[in-house]
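Hi U.,

Before I forget, here's the chain from the pilot set. I'm dumping it here mostly so it's searchable later in email.
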Amino acid sequence: MKRVKRCLAVIAGLCLMLAGPIFAEEGHEEATIHLSPAEIDEFGIQLSPVGAGVIGRPIELAGEIVVNPDRFAHVVPRVDGIVRQVVTGLGDRVEAGAVMATIDSRELADLKSTFLATLERRQLARLSFEREERLWRQAISSERDYLQAKQAYAEAAIEARSARHKLQAIGFTVAHLQALPEEEDALFARFEIRAPFAGVVVAKHISLGESVAGDTEIYSVTDLRQVWSVLTVYQRDLKWIKEGMVVTIRDRESGDNNAQGTISYVSPVLDPETRTASVRVVIGNQDGAWRPGMFIRGTVSVEKVTVPLVVQRSAVQRMADREVVFVYDGTEFKLRKVVTGRAAGDVIEIISGVKAGEIVASKGAFTLKTQIEKGEFASGHNH
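Structure:
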């Protein structure tokens, strides 16, 4: 905060040394501000050249941020049991495979017991089959006994495979199954409920000691590193909206957040009541700024044309009912009146006032404008 105040004070002081009035009049120079490269960097001012750009007719679309349903999961225990430990709470971040809770389950113990029993039966059936096969080949045992042993071995193998698949269906890995015969008795009924992927817990319906069924939704987890922007398109605008088009997304309430994405889906049918279609734009959300439920506004540029001069919208400021930019000549900023044209997204067309190749303050122009106005007031305009 002290640094910001010091920066603003420096600018205000410099503004008192303006070389003339705010706007150039006959016989007067344009207002100028002298800043060193270090001060420009310190004040967060960004410079961009004036040049040709693409301008289109903007179509504004209202919408909402929603979770990506492909990255949203209802976590269920998969087996009945009693909750032994609750590890994860509402709002916690989890990594893929992290233990969220543990339960004690008689159903799980039965599944493990069945699996181990089928392994033993398969082993005994295999030994019996191998013995009968040797005896049959030596003409000691009958073919009937040999075929019966072969059938018993095949049935035992099928039962073992079925028991293995039941455990794999609730999340057991091959390594876990291989280690199961040596597992401690204390862990035989213990089941760990794990996160399906990395994300945030957005719902929790589990408490210590309660009984839960295998299909009870005990957690909801969503990955908010990527969200969907669902926008509404009126029927009259649908002919312009295509998959692959770039959309600028902004927070409708504050306008602070903005992001860009491409249209990945356009609804093929209209809502029968609103006569609108929905489009989907997938945007990154690594910092968590886009929260599901936020109202947004998307801007799509159509009927695009190339124009000779464009600048960033943030470069154009309004002072005394005139639009101005701050032109930088390498040593100082000069206040320059401009005439603007069409605007689309983050850029705006310049009709007159600057030339191609000139450098303007594309970010931080508002700060310069504010301090010039303060400096003008302080000087009293005693011309």
